[in-house]
Here is the input.
Amino acid sequence: MRNLLRTSPLAPYSPALARSDGPASFAALARKLALPHTAALALPGPLPVLLTGAGRGWLDAFEADGELIAPLPGETRRLTSLASSVTAVEHAVDALP
Here is the structure.
């Protein structure tokens, strides 16, 4: 059985969720930790991050002008895009042998 860490929609928003180091940095961290009986999967975010060139993220965090999407009532772009990313990762993990 595979379990994925899910981010609660009630958790405080952090721009760090939307932009991060690439998968190589996380893979290097996993190797450095060398946890026994542990596998690590380092994936690039599925969404391009505006104004970063090749940056990838896990949720839409920025308006077209580069400003952060304001957490206003009824604003669902961040949550919707994060849910899509979680679904994509779940499908990728389920496809692993």
Remarks:
- Residues 77-94 form the longest helix (18 residues).
